[in-house]
Write the structure tokens for this entry.
Amino acid sequence: MEIREDDESFKNAVDILFERLEKENPDHFAVRQYAKFKLAAGKTSKSILVSCGARLAPFDIPQVRDIMSYDELELDKLGDKKTILFLIMSDNDPTFNFLLAMIYSQMFNILCEKADDFYGGRLPVHVRCLIDEAANVGQIPNLEKLMATIRSREISAALVLQAKSQLKAIYKDNAETICANCDSQIFLGGTEQSTLKDLNATLGKETIDMHNTGESRGSQQSYSMNYQKLGHDLMSVDELAVMDGSKCIVQVRGVRPFLSDKYDLTQHPNYKYTADADKKNWFDVEKFLNHELKLRPDDEYEVIEVTEED
């Protein structure tokens, strides 16, 4: 696409394509949107194209274009049968975070529509999204609204963060709405002050008995006793900051927060199948995706010659 500021009558290849589309379907959505873009002056149009080019820069990488050229995720089938989908992204390079945000956004929208259109509002298989390092995934569009609506469709999202401040940094004022739509919250420990203060306020206070005694000595000795009931923080900020690493605080809607022991993963019956228990169980993704045929001396094979005509 090309814009010439000194020649407003110039038509580039995209203009010609939209002219053809307009002749076929004048009310086409794309035609109407492109007409609004063409109202901009030459300098404004160039600025729009430069911004668009900068946003689409990652697609200049051949590997990214290859990934986006076809669909193998089948997001619409996640609620039909038990499926595991792993989305692995670098936790220190945010260049491709937008890909994960796109996947989550499309998945939520597709599954909600499918639940409404085919299953009467609820998917047959519950879809649980375990979003570890949620702050590094990037901003998922309309997450504050989705957290309130996906639950009724048998979809849930578990956001794992180092601190609540990370959520506020990404979603600004909507961070409180996202937290409010989480029925359960688990605090595993931390020292971030805003997180500790929020948890301290949520835990509330406990009632304590205060017993004061006094004694005065003089020509006439006297005694005094005073009983009071006072409110005291269930756990103060400093107590939360040094909480035992083997403990966690669980908050479930409708139930008072309670202190619980963390589960010891090594005691799980399937722990022996993990790579932490035995390095032989490590799953090599690159080896699994490598389809290069390796022949052994005792293999028998048939060679078929394929020409360009075939």
